[in-house]
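Morning!

This is the sequence you dropped in the shared folder:
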Amino acid sequence: MLAVFATIDWSVAFPRFVGEIALLTVGAVMLGFLVEKALPKSMNPKLFAVLLPFTALGVLAYVGSYSAAAALVLFAALAVVMLALGMS
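The structure's back. Tokens below.
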């Protein structure tokens, strides 16, 4: 993660980088919400609502998207905060 921040030209890429991170994070949250609402209770929708966005961001990060890697870290931090607040 630090290597990503060290290799960026902050004057040009920073607004786009932050925008991509925001879009990917919001997209991951929306994907999880849609999966939770679409699956019946018998298929444990909360599990898949977490796994599918993590998998999607992980695949994008593996392919080489620095923004997806940062969004994956932010999405994990968001999950920890929600767990701490009891919003599971």
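Headline: The chain is about 80% helix and 0% strand.

More detail when I'm at my desk.
O.
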